[in-house]
Write a structure and sequence with these properties.
About 45% of the residues lie in helices and about 5% in strands. It is mainly alpha-helical. Helix 1 crosses helix 3, helix 2 runs antiparallel to helix 4 and helix 10 packs antiparallel against helix 11.
Length: about 625
């Protein structure tokens, strides 16, 4: 029924006529019913360590869940005094006391007797009985020994754990004798390493970043938290997700790091993630597996030729074969043949040859050009097959950045070396052609060149010749180092100096005018000096198609423009260009030549010795 404007509004003063009570005045039975559903909800959604999921550990799981759910129910009791007094008689506390003290060792403390004999004994609430037991008992003992009275009334110290807050432990349970996550204790130590001790694997915690307040972790918790950490991000799920049965298909280094962490507690979760991400990226986007197979084949050949019998081979492994679980042999083969360096160098070389001169550092920081870069081949007629694809190809453009900073830094340095190796011979040819016009003019030309001019020169076929030769110069041909306009103007000026018989002084019978004065020449020179330009060589004219045998081995697709090239990529390009023209501006005095000669000799003596230390001599001071 709708209310009319003239109808009186209901009054809410005083007690409500509906009989609805506030939540603080609910009956104790209703409050305990609410708490029952609350405990069921908490128990279903709470976290259980995988240690207690086995059937044999079901009694341990019950005690662990009681300690965990008791903290949640105590929070509900603090809402108001009426709820606290009602929940003290909840059946959960009676069940908890029976599970923690199954032999009723502390049952005599449940009844209080006053000094006055006339008063009748009073029974305490189940909640107070539970608090009496837990305030003097060891949590670790009760969880690991649920069917006995071990640990009752033996609590000595309070310890904070990540999943349950503050607990009490006895004198026997120091921090390194039980797992700080699931509270599983280490079996008693003995001379023999029993399977039970190996199954628990409670070892000192080294991953203080993941578990900062945990002194030791067990094998089960380390394995569980590893997979939980892997399943956080989608890329990590494809890296090592799938459980321990999936380890056999992983890279040997990832399996080694996982086994060392789970079995011996060595390393951290962050280090395992870093290794797994790097190996997954290398296996997917580089040829590291192919290089590793070649290294193992070479290792087997060396073992067979030297008559070496593999000691760790089992019955299923034939003689000369390498066990995939022998991490030491696999590591030696990878390090001996530089498998990782070859895979990274091959990836960077393929990227540059395809025309994508984008540095991995720009990929890591997200500095990508707005438009899709395009590239053209400077010598298309030298390609083995007609390539109608657009370069860089989509497969090169879709490669994601390196997953870790460590790998991105390695790829950045490898990319710089490969870019120098490919572009330096071509840029040296550019400098060699500029040198055709003389050293002084070449220095002026190089000083005025822009990076776009260098890129346009790299797009010419002559820049990729092994041996760039100066073209033959005929008598009537202009200097190849002179632009066409300058050559035409010079020939015209030379022709104007020859005297025509029609305009000769003998024909005109006149005296030629005197030459201009020196002051006039200086004024004309001052007027023309601002308009003078540095003579620039025409680098964009072909010298003729080079012979196929005279072409360089690596000729990449050259980008069409450098306008949107990011900073790190542009820096790598500039470094190669500076190295190519550095000899042009080098000092030619005897001192500098001698120093350069000594430096070249030192580089040939130790070309790759990075551990070379310059011997130190005691400083001599004048007396």
């Amino acid at each position: 029924m709708l209310s009319t404007p003239n109808s009186p509004l209901p009054s809410n003063k005083g007690k409500s006529s509906t009989g609805v009570k506030p939540w603080s005045q609910l009956p104790p039975e209703i409050i305990r019913l609410i708490a029952t559903y609350y405990i069921l909800d908490v128990s279903n959604s709470a976290y259980y360590p995988s240690t207690w999921e086995l059937r044999e550990h079901w009694p341990h799981r019950i005690v662990y869940s009681i300690f965990r759910d008791a903290f949640a129910l105590e929070k509900l009791m603090t809402m108001c005094p009426s709820w606290g007094s009602a929940l003290e008689w909840h059946h959960f506390w009676s069940h908890a006391c029976c599970a923690i003290d199954p032999l009723d060792t502390l049952a005599q403390h449940t009844v209080t007797q006053h000094n006055n004999n006339t008063s009748s004994p009073q029974r305490v609430s189940p909640y107070h009985q539970f608090r009496l037991i837990t305030q003097c008992s060891c949590y670790v003992c009760r969880i690991n020994n649920p069917g006995s009275n071990v640990g009752l009334a033996l609590a000595k110290r309070a310890v904070a754990v990540p999943l349950m807050g503050t607990i009490l432990t006895c004198r026997e349970h120091r921090k390194n004798t039980y797992c700080g996550l699931c509270l599983r204790e280490t079996p008693p130590r003995c001379d023999l390493f029993t399977p039970e001790v190996a199954a628990v694997g409670c070892i000192e915690n080294e991953d203080l970043e993941t578990w900062p307040a945990v002194a030791a972790t067990c094998r089960s918790c380390r394995s569980e938290w590893l997979w939980r950490r892997m399943n956080v991000a989608a890329p990590d799920r494809g890296t090592v997700s799938g459980g321990s049965s999936y380890w056999s298909s992983l890279d040997w280094e990832v399996r080694q790091s996982i086994d060392a962490f789970v079995e011996a507690g060595e390393g951290t979760l962050g280090e395992i993630l870093q290794v797994a991400r790097e190996k997954h990226w290398l296996n997917r986007y580089t040829r590291v597996r192919m290089h590793m197979e070649h290294a193992l084949a070479q290792q087997r050949l060396d073992m067979h030729s030297n008559g070496y019998v593999y000691e760790n081979a089992d019955e299923d492994t034939t003689a000369g074969e390498i066990d995939p679980d022998d991490y030491e042999t696999l590591a030696m083969a990878e390090e001996l043949h530089s498998v990782r360096d070859m895979a990274q160098s091959d990836w960077a070389r393929t990227r540059i040859l395809d025309g994508l001169w984008l540095s991995p550092a720009d990929d890591w920081y997200g500095y990508r050009p707005r438009h899709t870069p395009s590239a053209e081949h400077p010598v298309p007629w030298a390609l083995s097959t007609s390539d109608a694809q657009v370069h860089p190809v989509p497969a090169t453009l879709r490669v994601p950045p390196a997953p870790t900073y460590h790998l991105a830094d390695q790829l950045y340095r490898v990319f710089e070396r490969q870019l120098r190796k490919i572009l330096l011979p071509a840029m040296q040819n550019i400098i060699k052609r500029i040198m055709f016009q003389g050293r002084a003019e070449a220095m002026k030309t190089v000083a005025t060149m822009e990076l776009e001019d260098v890129l346009r020169a790299l797009q010419q076929a002559w820049a990729w010749s092994k041996d760039l030769r100066r073209p033959p110069v005929h008598e009537n041909d202009p200097d190849p180092g002179t632009p066409l306009d300058d050559a035409y103007s010079s020939s015209k000026s030379e022709a104007s100096h020859t005297t025509s018989p029609v305009l000769s002084t003998a024909t005109l019978q006149t005296t030629p005018s005197p030459p201009p004065s020196e002051d006039k020449r200086e004024k004309d020179g001052d007027a023309e000096s601002p308009s003078e330009e540095v003579p620039r060589m025409n680098l964009f004219t072909e010298l003729g198609p080079p012979e196929p045998s005279n072409l360089l081995r690596d000729i990449p697709y050259v980008p069409t423009s450098l306008q949107e090239m990011p900073s790190f990529s542009l820096k790598a390009f500039i470094e190669v260009w500076r190295e190519s023209y550095a000899p042009l501006f080098a000092c030619s005095c005897k001192i500098c030549e001698r120093a350069m000669l000594h430096r070249d000799v030192g580089d040939t003596v130790r070309p790759n010795d990075t551990n070379y230390v310059v011997p130190s001599h005691p400083a001599s001071y004048p007396q």
